[in-house]
């Protein structure tokens, strides 16, 4: 039987826990539901963004990032009575923020990867503000309509030895002062950006879970544009010329197999550590889609949102798929955790293999048959005879409009042809 003193201690502890729980519940009401406006601080650059909070007074508030027509949901949780953590989906990155007395929040975005000492970005956000860059009533009539396609020519920095950078393509849509757009490169796209045109200046930003992106530009008297674009403290300078025929190089003509090779050969562990090889019986006589990717890569995620449902619809036709994941750490336990979250979130029903740590010449070392690897993701299509038929560099998501539609059309035509081929 417990002594009086031990029972007293038990009651006291229970009371403290109850009061703590009540305090947390009371504090949760300070996280206001509805539209918010935040500002990231990147060096001397301020990058505004918008999101919506729902269930702010509950145990698991949901944050929905708003960028044009795109919506990205992030799950939040209270980690103390006045602090929250918001995990940015599969990017191993999170917001850590304190709820201030006025209902606003302030905090940082930082990596969740153990040992990753990459930059930490500070931000603040306040509820009830739906504008992006320009406050209502302070708009200045735009000097031009930027709607359409643009050649975006990257200006080399002084320390870049004057080497030319590949051109990019921008697609803008403007309605009054409001501007949305996306910028494509050979490695993929910027994801959706949103902003304003203010007189002869324009501004765009985007926050979809990875690093914040921004564009700041000027409209010249000849209707050309110039400015800076980036996701870091040292943005890239650019010049732009409107051209409705602007397009990137053929993504199927950038990466190849080296002379003397007509197929791939690899063995990597799956999420349970079991070795999986392209030579396994499971893949013989099948059309196999191989995606070189990483859970940290935004364009890879967009490619997965296309491939995952496509695979489920077509796997009964003699199709297989394999994701070769290059991750932030050369650690099977870390990779299993990150890739399991990815698999569950996007219902990836095909094999996911851990190929090693991203960086340097990792892909060239692990897949020596590939020549000129340029981007994550890269998609390799293998025919029923085991030979590589096509290699596609990068990925242009739904926000790129016609570019995405053209990709899907060619993909469906090519895969239908390969699937219809007889077994060897």
From TrEMBL:
<dbReference type="InterPro" id="IPR050553">
    <property type="entry name" value="Thioredoxin_ResA/DsbE_sf"/>
</dbReference>
<feature type="signal peptide">
    <location>
        <begin position="1"/>
        <end position="26"/>
    </location>
</feature>
<feature type="domain" description="Thioredoxin">
    <location>
        <begin position="257"/>
        <end position="413"/>
    </location>
</feature>
<dbReference type="InterPro" id="IPR013740">
    <property type="entry name" value="Redoxin"/>
</dbReference>
<protein>
    <submittedName>
        <fullName>TlpA family protein disulfide reductase</fullName>
    </submittedName>
</protein>
<dbReference type="InterPro" id="IPR013766">
    <property type="entry name" value="Thioredoxin_domain"/>
</dbReference>
<dbReference type="Pfam" id="PF08534">
    <property type="entry name" value="Redoxin"/>
</dbReference>
<dbReference type="InterPro" id="IPR036249">
    <property type="entry name" value="Thioredoxin-like_sf"/>
</dbReference>
<keyword id="KW-0732">Signal</keyword>
């Amino acid at each position: 039987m417990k002594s009086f003193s031990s029972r007293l201690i038990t009651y006291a502890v229970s009371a403290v826990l109850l009061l703590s729980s009540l305090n947390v519940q009371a504090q949760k009401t300070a996280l206001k539901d509805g539209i918010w406006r935040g500002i990231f601080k990147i060096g001397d650059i301020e990058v505004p963004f918008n999101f919506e909070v729902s269930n702010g007074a509950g145990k698991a508030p949901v944050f929905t990032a708003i960028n044009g027509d795109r919506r990205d949901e992030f799950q939040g949780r209270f980690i103390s009575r006045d602090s929250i953590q918001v995990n940015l989906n599969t990017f191993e990155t999170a917001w850590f923020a304190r709820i201030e007395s006025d209902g606003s929040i302030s905090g940082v975005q930082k990596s969740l990867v153990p040992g990753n000492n990459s930059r930490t970005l500070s931000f603040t956000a306040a509820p009830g503000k739906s504008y992006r860059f320009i406050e209502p009533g302070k708009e200045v009539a735009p000097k031009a309509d930027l709607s359409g396609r643009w050649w975006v020519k990257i200006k080399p920095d002084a320390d870049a030895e004057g080497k030319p950078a590949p051109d990019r393509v921008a697609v803008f849509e403007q309605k009054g002062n409001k501007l949305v757009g996306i910028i494509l490169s050979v490695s993929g796209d910027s994801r959706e950006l949103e902003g304003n045109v203010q007189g002869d200046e324009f501004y765009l930003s985007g926050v979809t879970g990875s690093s914040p992106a921004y564009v700041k530009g000027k409209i010249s008297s000849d209707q050309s544009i110039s400015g800076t674009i980036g996701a870091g403290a040292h943005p890239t300078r650019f010049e732009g010329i409107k051209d409705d025929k602007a397009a990137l190089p053929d993504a199927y003509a950038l990466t190849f197999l080296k002379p003397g090779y007509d197929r791939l050969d690899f063995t990597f562990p799956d999420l349970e550590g079991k070795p999986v090889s392209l030579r396994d019986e499971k893949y013989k006589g099948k059309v196999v889609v191989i995606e070189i990717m990483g859970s940290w890569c935004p364009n890879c995620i967009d490619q997965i949102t296309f491939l995952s449902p496509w695979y489920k619809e077509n796997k009964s036709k003699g199709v297989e798929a394999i994701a070769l994941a290059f991750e932030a750490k050369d650690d099977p336990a870390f990779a299993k955790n990150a890739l399991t979250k990815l698999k569950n979130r996007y219902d990836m029903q095909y094999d996911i293999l851990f190929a090693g740590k991203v960086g340097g010449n990792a892909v060239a070392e692990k897949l020596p048959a590939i020549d000129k690897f340029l981007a994550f993701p890269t998609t390799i299509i293998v025919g029923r005879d085991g030979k590589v038929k096509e290699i596609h560099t990068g990925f242009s998501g739904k926000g790129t409009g016609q570019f995405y539609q053209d990709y899907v059309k060619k993909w469906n035509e090519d895969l239908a042809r390969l699937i219809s081929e007889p077994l060897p």
